[in-house]
C-alpha cells in the first residue's frame, strides 16, 4: 500500500541573547505513516508534498460511488422500517386497550407484529451504521496538525488496503556539535543539524 507520511516540524522562537550559537539536531515531534484499510482507485487528492494540514482534514478519497449508493439504499430501508413500526405500534396500542374483551390470539398477533417491526428497525439501523463505516474507510484524514512529508500516490492509482501505522519521536534535549549547517529562526530540517544565531543588546 502506498502511504502518506505526515510530519510535524518544529519552529524556533526568537532568542534574546548576545551572539548565541547553538548546533543541534532537529527531529519532528511526531510522524505518522498513513494508509487506507480498504482497496480501490484514488478519486481525489487534496494535498501535495509540503502542504500544511489540520487534524481531521481530508487528504484523499477513493472512488466510493457504489458505497454511497448502498448507504442511500440502507437509509431508505431504515425509513420504511420505521414507518412500518409506527403503524404496528398504533395497531398494538389500539388492541391493548381492549385486550380483555377480544380474543387472546388476536391480541398476541398484533403484539408479535409490533415486536417484529421493532426488530426490523434495529436491523436497518445496524445496516446503516455498517454501510457508513465502509464508506468512511474510503477517506483518509489527517490524525493531527502537520505537514505532508511524502506523497507517493496520484489520481487514478489503484491501492490495496493495509492497516495504518504510526510512530512518534522526541527532539533531543541537549545540543550536539556534529554539524555547522546554518538555519534561520523558524526553519528546520528533519534528521539534520542546524545552527541558530541571534543578537540582542541585552546580555
Question: Can you characterise this structure?
Answer:
- By secondary structure, the chain is of the alpha+beta class.
- It is built from two helices and eleven strands; from the N terminus they run ββββββααβββββ.
- It has helices spanning about 65-95, 105-135; strands spanning about 5-10, 20-25, 30-35, 40-45, 50-55, 60, 140, 145-150, 160, 165, 190-200.
- A five-stranded antiparallel beta sheet has the order 5-8-1-3-10, with no helix packed on it.
- Helix 1 runs antiparallel to helix 2.
SSE arrangement:
Elements (H helix, E strand, L loop, with lengths): L3 E5 L11 E7 L3 E5 L5 E6 L6 E2 L4 E5 L2 H33 L6 H33 L2 E3 L4 E5 L7 E2 L5 E3 L24 E7 L5
Antiparallel strand pairs: 1-3, 1-8, 2-11, 3-10, 4-6, 4-9, 5-8, 6-7
Helix pairs in contact: 1-2
Question: Quick recap of the structure?
Answer:
The chain is α+β, with helices and mostly antiparallel strands and 203 residues long.
Low-confidence stretches: 4-15, 163-203
| Overall geometry | rod-shaped
Number of E-type strands: 11
Helix content: 25-40%
Order of strands in the sheet with most strands: 5-8-1-3-10
Order of helices and strands: EEEEEEHHEEEEE
Q: Hey, roughly how much beta strand do the residues contain?
A: 15-25%
Number of helices: 2
